[in-house]
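Reviewer 2 asked us to include a model.

Predict the structure of this chain.
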Amino acid sequence: RMTSKLSVDTIQGVSQAGSITIQGEGTAETNLQQGLSKAWANVSGVNTTVNDSFNVASSTDVSTGKKDIGFTNNMNNALYSTVAMVFFHTGTGNGMNCAVEATYSTSEFRIITITHLNNSTSTADSQAIFTQVSGDLA
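Predicted model (structure tokens):
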């Protein structure tokens, strides 16, 4: 069994309500609690499998190209920030992008994947969805 040790010469900061602000690069300060990702996931685009995640409890197939991603621990409000991207193997002239639908809630958000084929767009399932969430946990 291996043991790991963390060695710190000096940490300067202010601790408040479970958070700590530390000196970052240059003169900037970094808030460790606010600066951490609150959820991330690698989700299958063709079924409801959550391949790997942090603070993501579920993936629900709503309809073609639409998935609800549910949190294990809810967010404090629906004003969090979400980024997402998709993996979609396509031929020449095809492409895919994704968006987060404006129906955020504290317990889940919806990702929409859209394909572009020969100047036409429609919702379509991707092979994989990658997403990350920043904001305040409840």
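The chain has a mean pLDDT of 82. The radius of gyration is 19 Å. We have added this to the supplementary material.
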